[in-house]
Amino acid sequence: MAAGKPVMQPPNAWLLDFGQSCRAAVGTRVLLQIMERPKLHAVPCSPAYCHSVLSWQGRLLPVMDMAVRLGGVRQAPRLLAVVGYRDQPDEPVHFAALLLDALPVAISVSNTQASPLPEQPAGWDQFALSCFAYQDAAIPILHLGRIFSGQSDIG
Fold this sequence. Notes:
This protein has 155 residues and is mainly beta. It contains three helices and eleven strands. A six-stranded mixed sheet has the order 3-7-8-6-5-4. The longest helix has 6 residues, at 144-149. 30% of the residues are buried. The mean pLDDT is 89.
């Protein structure tokens, strides 16, 4: 390695763009599949931010629109990220989906990038584990268990 060159760390997170200037991140192992123009099924009497499900590998997955969940307006789904997460290390994996406005970007994040949560849109404190600075923006790290369990106080 040449002297003075920074050491590039392998990607350890996916940067997700939900549209409407709403971005967040998840760990690389959390994102399982990206789908383009997914076939979604509407769920009557459900909230606008989670009004449909996806049939995926024999399961019905809730589909979350984080931009709407944080106060934005509903958009036509372009992309969908299937995610897998555990509420506790010894519990089974849960699966769900997030609507995306653009393809995820693999990035490297370190503890030196720690940052306060963004003030806008309001509500990130309900859905984020922590936050980091990336390209002059505060990027929340999603707590998927809170998002999909209904444990938040928003909406």
